[in-house]
Amino acid sequence: MHIELVIAKLVTMLLGFLIAYQAYRGYRRNDSQPMFYVAVGFVFISFGAVIEGVLFDVLGFSVFDAGTVATVIVAIGMLSVLYALYGAEYTEVRG
Question: What Cα–Cα distance (Å) separates residue 63 from each residue in 22, 69, 80?
């Protein structure tokens, strides 16, 4: 793997984890359930940004299998953020 790509992936992961940390702080400060799901979502998205290279280069997965795993992880993160935007708010108000 090229060092520039590794650095870019690590910066992306660091930024995602920073966003997740801030969302978690918002959850703790305001007891806001949607912010918790935003935090969880960004952890998955950030992890998914780097896992493909690790699976391919380090563990020897095929490009297809590594890409599939990374895509599923990112999709889980996006579903969590989507739930924070639509589902969590609705259940918090109604339930």
Answer: 33, 10, 26
